Amino acid sequence: MPVWITITGLIIGSYWGLLMSHLGVWGTLQIPMPGSYSPKTLILKVWTSVFSKSFLGDSNVQFGMRASSSGVGNIWPAGHQRPSKLFGLALPRHYRYHNYIFGDHLLYHLPAKFHVKADIQQLLVSVVRDSECEMYPSVSSDESYSLVVKEPVALLKANRVWGVLRGLETFSQLIYQDAYGTFTVNESTISDSPRFPHRGILIDTARHFLSVKTILRTLDAMAFNKFNVLHWHIVDDQSFPYQSTTFPELSNKGSYSLSHVYTPNEVREVIEYARLRGIRVIPEFDSPGHTQSWGKGQEGLLTPCYRSYQPEVSGPINPTLNTTYSFLYKLFKEISWVFPDQFIHLGGDEVEYDCWESNPNIQTFMKQKGFGTDFSKLESFYIQKLLNIISTLKKGSIVWQEVFDNNAKLQSGTVVQVWKEQNYAKELSSITAAGFPVIISAPWYLDRISYGQDWRLYYAVEPLNFSGTQEQKQLVIGGEACLWGEYVDATNLSPRLWPRASAIGERLWSRQDVRSLDDAYRRLTVHRCRMVRRGIAAEPLFTGYCDNVLK
Amino acid sequence: MAGSRLWLSLLLAAAFAGPATALWPWPQYIQTSDWHYTISPHSFQFKYHVRSAAQSGCSVLDEAFQRYRDLLFGSESWQRAALTGEQQTLEKQSLVILVVTPGCEQLPSLESVENYTLTINNEQCFLLSETVWGALRGLETFSQLVWRSPEGTFFINKTEIEDFPRFPHRGLLLDTSRHYLPLPTILDTLDAMAYNKFNVFHWHLVDDPSFPYESFAFPELTRKGSYNPATHIYTAQDVKEVIEYARLRGIRVLAEFDTPGHTLSWGQGVSGLLTPCYSGSQPSGTFGPVNPILNSTYEFMNTFFLEVSSVFPDFYLHLGGDEVDFACWKSNPDVQAFMKKKGFGNDFKQLESFYIQTLLDIVSAYGKGYVVWQEVFDNKVKVRPDTIIQVWREEVPVSYMKELALITEAGFRALLSAPWYLNRISYGPDWEDFYRVDPLSFEGSPEQKALVIGGEACMWGEYVDSTNLVPRLWPRAGAVAERLWSNKVVTDPDFAFKRLAHFRCELLRRGVQAQPLSVGYCEQEFEQI
């Protein structure tokens, strides 16, 4: 589908993107416009009262409901008639896009604007089809939208509420304050949709616990960047903060402390907060490796390692016992209803075989099954049983690439996530040649830091740059920026993630030919200041300043 | 030297590594035991000894008592702890402080004595120091010795500490030109510096990108040269506040006004100050370093540094002198003519020297000492013998250890920064690299080694502002702090790791957003507001 941005009817470029346009960025005037740009551009003033009371908070989803019944929703009937106090500090905090756009400035610039001729008085939102308002977003959610900003009413049209959310973000980014402080938006026409349906951020709450507040803040920032998947690597060797109702001992014994856990209520809060921003929450319960913390609360789950026939320490999950699988069934049954997303991430990476090798019972089992000394067969045996459990639970599975590499028999539709950097293009070829959908993370490990502007490397990645047919390329459903937690906690998460992850956000949303680094630098500089203004501690790209300093 | 005694106590301490031995930086001499005393937040007091030269009314210590009371006990109302258990514990109701030399209203200096002894035993809970600055260091140590049981009771172990810094200059550089740092960010950094026993705030105030220092002699400098003259500047009041806040923590403020390079932002507000660069026979419209051939330049510097000398009370000023790019000077026909007249030939280092020497004369006339970057030495500028040379280049023209040898061989005092550029980040525990450096591991006589007065951790601002400064600084700068304070034999990385991990949790508890060293957790995690 073609996507265009036009200004006063003139097509000036085709930018998809979280940082949408040349037009709307702060400091528009400094940016050289293409030759076809008309200097007669009509600049429209935005009333701070653009949004009605019933709009733009967490309540915008409700609004979408109403819109769907009538086809077009007049979001805001008020204009001149509205008393200005409605938009003062009394405005409820949850009108989030109102705050993002007008922030602290509302009181200062309100009165003088009413006589200006060219005004945007309303943003009309129209949800064309069934709004999906009470649903959860999914990998097939329609996020497309179109936005026409024209006097006197701006129109945002989308098939579903998810597209409305993306469009609202774009609209908020089009508005800027001119030199006199007037909120201003250029007349523009935008038609937009994502390049890839899966655009994720991985957070790791096992190496370091992240408070719910930190996670919610991250979801906010994800929405600013049109990310739509929170890959929640919730447990690992170091700790098990997920509080299971079926197996409460897992977090009682496996968490760092009793205050370092996620209660069922907190998990629900994260999921709902994400849903309201059009973000899916995909939990990862990585096994059979990376499970040291599971063993503390579930006796007999891990493989006893033998040194001269004495069990000393524990290795990966013991794949030879029936009790293992009945445990897994119950745990994943719980997970499958706690997390509403269609997919669960099962991990399956970095399984070390030494411990299995040392264990005489495992050796016997291997012999019995005819696996010889090939422990990858044992691993595949385990994973296949787990995959079967998941499909019994009517969920889809995502696994790390090792599962594919070790030739486990995967059901069609199993998604494979590529994380090893070496030859990842080749890996993409093989996985898609075998017909499996794939998620790319290999070039986007944001926990690996270096001096300087590494965002440029992330930005330059082209996900479809591997050898394969058209059909193969279509199996790339997207990618994820991974922020592993060995050296990251709430103290440094935000500046380490933003705006570096924004580069990946644009790579996954915008069209393939949006790749000019200079243009990206200009827009990203503005966007990082925008994030700072919205309360995200996004670090600087380079020397310079924002008008608003983070408090 | 009590080398063997120290080793013994170090090993003992490492062996039981309880809460009482998680000190950072590690003291010169410590003896501690399991025997401990309770401390009651209700009744505990800091008290001046009757014979102390500092008494109530001494701002430095009065305010420190308040700070440390808050740090130790917070503002919670404490339940009186019911003491159970077998051990009969004595309560310590006060820490008694005796300062030998008066000097509460003075400023710390390079020569300030920071020694202290801390005695906590059945008879005493006593802090003795030569100066108030030493008392500040001792109070910090005391605050790190106090620990809390899971039930919430405060304890301190029986401990004997004799402590003093290995180097007198232990600095941290912040760059407020590449990115502006709001005043509260600077003040918070001074607090964290005090926790680490840093004692010099090297304030790289201005540079090419912006000029946030508000000069009363030349207000145009900030009006035209700052990022935003309303919000991104340091007023005279701000600067005073920083200096006083630092003084109360025993920290010197070493202001840097870097010239003749790194001065683009100066040119906005003072026309004719910078050298016009030429392309061919025409001025190109761009500007280079300060123009060293004009009298007006030196008149400006005379007035400007007169102001700076009085605004910043420390004896030393940092005059920069690094990375002068000669291309613009070379392109300018007037500069060429000047070179010929002076007989410099094509050696622009001589022109640089000419400039620097004139500047040094100006600053000396105001009764100030100065610190300069190593290029001034490398380019053989004739400087006063008491000049301090700061080494920042890791490999070129020679390795930094070799550079230290050369500088001290020439009889100058030296500061080391080269291995401690904290703005340069990489994956993993890079604090170990900072920690491993020994500033005196160059070949030279004991007299040469004595000329190394310390070092500085540098946080240049290209990629750093208030969004990421704190986690990038702490606890990484802590590694440098211990290297500069503690005895040279304190080098064991495992012992350091245990204490530093504990210390970073203590920093979190104190509200410093210090990032993790490795996997794990703190009882009290950082929570963003």
TrEMBL record, chain B:
Disulfides per UniProt: 58-104, 277-328, 505-522
| TM region(s), chain numbering | none
Would I find Nucleus among this entry's keywords?
Answer: no
The enzyme's first-digit EC class, named in words, is hydrolase
The listed locations are: Lysosome
Provide the Glycoside hydrolase family 20 catalytic domain boundaries.
167-487
Residues annotated as the enzyme's active site: 323 (proton donor)
Domain (Beta-hexosaminidase eukaryotic type N-terminal): give its ranges. Answer: 23-145
Q: Which reaction does it catalyse?
A: beta-D-GalNAc-(1->4)-alpha-L-IdoA-(1->3)-beta-D-GalNAc-4-sulfate-(1->4)-alpha-L-IdoA-(1->3)-D-GalNAc-4-sulfate + H2O = alpha-L-IdoA-(1->3)-beta-D-GalNAc-4-sulfate-(1->4)-alpha-L-IdoA-(1->3)-D-GalNAc-4-sulfate + N-acetyl-D-galactosamine; a ganglioside GM2 + H2O = a ganglioside GM3 + N-acetyl-beta-D-galactosamine; N-acetyl-beta-D-galactosaminyl-(1->4)-beta-D-3-sulfogalactosyl-(1->4)-beta-D-glucosyl-(1<->1')-ceramide + H2O = a beta-D-3-sulfogalactosyl-(1->4)-beta-D-glucosyl-(1<->1')-ceramide + N-acetyl-beta-D-galactosamine; N-acetyl-beta-D-6-sulfogalactosaminyl-(1->4)-alpha-L-iduronyl-(1->3)-N-acetyl-D-6-sulfogalactosamine + H2O = alpha-L-iduronyl-(1->3)-N-acetyl-D-6-sulfogalactosamine + N-acetyl-D-6-sulfogalactosamine
Enzyme Commission identifier(s): 3.2.1.52
Chief site of localization: other
Single Gene Ontology MF annotation: beta-N-acetylhexosaminidase activity
Query: What is the protein's quaternary organization?
Result: There are 3 beta-hexosaminidase isozymes: isozyme A (hexosaminidase A) is a heterodimer composed of one subunit alpha and one subunit beta (chain A and B); isozyme B (hexosaminidase B) is a homodimer of two beta subunits (two chains A and B); isozyme S (hexosaminidase S) is a homodimer of two alpha subunits. The composition of the dimer (isozyme A versus isozyme S) has a significant effect on the substrate specificity of the alpha subunit active site.
Family, similarity comment: Belongs to the glycosyl hydrolase 20 family.
Q: What does this protein do?
A: Hydrolyzes the non-reducing end N-acetyl-D-hexosamine and/or sulfated N-acetyl-D-hexosamine of glycoconjugates, such as the oligosaccharide moieties from proteins and neutral glycolipids, or from certain mucopolysaccharides. The isozyme S is as active as the isozyme A on the anionic bis-sulfated glycans, the chondroitin-6-sulfate trisaccharide (C6S-3), and the dermatan sulfate pentasaccharide, and the sulfated glycosphingolipid SM2. The isozyme B does not hydrolyze each of these substrates, however hydrolyzes efficiently neutral oligosaccharide.
- Indicate what this protein is called per its UniProt record: Beta-hexosaminidase
Q: What is the scientific name of the source organism? A: Myotis myotis (Greater mouse-eared bat)
